[in-house]
Design a protein that fits this description.
This protein is mainly α. It contains 7 helices and no strands. It has one domain: Glutathione S-transferase Yfyf (Class Pi), Chain A, domain 2 (Up-down Bundle), CATH 1.20.1050.10. Helices cover 72% and strands 0% of the residues. The two termini are 20 Å apart.
């Protein structure tokens, strides 16, 4: 901040937003609302995937590239059964996406063997450090 004092207020605003978001995530009602939004999103995608191979047609598009990280995060949290496999078209879609060479290059390699645990550990460490500093 010493190098760019004019950015200090923007930095503090972003930091405050991050802390506010963490506080909101501790509110059970907000967590419930977020889960409901996720379920609606996945249900809408399931309906669309009943008609098309990918989210907006028969070709992989930016919409898919934006949606796949949500599925990956669900997988990372070991919640696939609750959110993905209970939706047959979503499960089929996710398997299709995971067979793409680009998926393997960008995401898949982090979920094989020991790398999956490394990814888990990095996420856990990040959240722990963030929580620790968020309280003090």
């Amino acid at each position: 901040m010493a190098e760019a004092p004019d950015l200090a207020s923007m930095y503090h605003t972003k930091l405050r937003e991050a802390y506010d978001k963490e506080e909101k995530l501790k509110d059970p009602e907000i967590v419930k609302q977020s889960e409901e939004k996720l379920c609606r999103l996945l249900d809408d995608a399931e309906l669309q995937l009943d008609q098309t191979k990918y989210l907006v047609g028969d070709e992989f598009t930016l919409a898919d590239a934006m949606f796949v990280p949500i599925l990956v995060r669900i997988t990372l949290l070991d919640l696939e059964e609750e959110y993905i496999t209970c939706r047959p078209k979503m499960e089929e879609y996710y398997k299709l996406v995971k067979r793409r060479p680009s998926y393997e290059v960008v995401i898949g390699k982090y979920f094989r063997g020991w790398r999956k645990y490394r990814t888990h550990l990095k996420t856990l460490c990040f959240l722990s450090v963030r929580s620790m500093f968020g309280r003090y």
